[in-house]
Amino acid sequence: MGLLMRGKNSSGDWDLFSPIANFDNLVEDYLNRTPEVAIALSRMDSGGYSYASVEIEFLEDVAVPLTLTLVATEDDVQVTQESPAGHLEGYPENHVLRCAITDPWGMEVVADGKRGTKRQVRLPLETSNVTNLNNCNIVAFISEKESRRILNAAQN
Q1: Nearest CA to 127 among 76, 71, 46?
Q2: 90's torsion region: left (phi>0), alpha (psi -120 to 50) or beta?
Q3: What is the per-residue DSSP string for 81-99?
Q4: How far is CA 64 from CA 30, 110, 123, 147, in A?
Q5: In the chain, fewer beta carbons within 10 Å around the N or the C end?
Q6: pLDDT tens digit string along 75-119?
Q7: For 105-139, b where at least 16 C-beta lie within 10 A, e where not — what string?
Q8: Contact 61, 113 (CB under 8 A)
């Protein structure tokens, strides 16, 4: 069983469904929809510093204020895992949240919200909480400021 909430339906209500059957096809349909805002993310290293570069393009007119949130995650973090059989040493955890690069609720996207408008943001990365930079991922997402509904996301 699963629950998916990605957008509003024709009556303006959140399009919620809890499918028991055909879940993969329903998710596939949502993932294939064109987002209102495109987002591309890359990571650069220069002079001993790391930066995230985010490119945003409005694919549709968006009339509400938006925020951009970036976080750093790390994969293959070796931990001790408790199990019924005892301690499992060296258990690899993935997608471990290491830090928020922006304010956790995001930074304001300064744009007119008109289709075709593009913006680029470059932010320094604070990596002191990351154990292995080779396993570090930057995750960025655009959301509606008031409702917090995520319009699109990217990972480098």
Answers
A1: 71
A2: left
A3: EEETTEEEEEEEE-SEEEE
A4: 22, 11, 24, 10
A5: N
A6: 887 878 887 888 878 877 777 777 888 988 899 999 999 999 999
A7: ebeebebebeeebeeebebebebeebeeeeebbbb
A8: yes
In degrees, to the nearest 5, what angle opens at C-alpha 71 toward C-alphas 101 and 139?
Answer: 130
pLDDT in tens, 5-62: 556 666 777 666 555 667 778 778 777 888 999 999 998 877 878 889 999 999 999 9
Q: Residue 42 forms beta bridges with which residues?
A: 53
Cα separation, 125 vs 137, in Å, equals 11
Q: How far apart are CA 50 and CA 13, in angstroms?
A: 41
- Residues counted in the chain: 156
H/E run at residue 143: strand 136-144
**Contact by Cβ (8 Å): 89, 14:** no
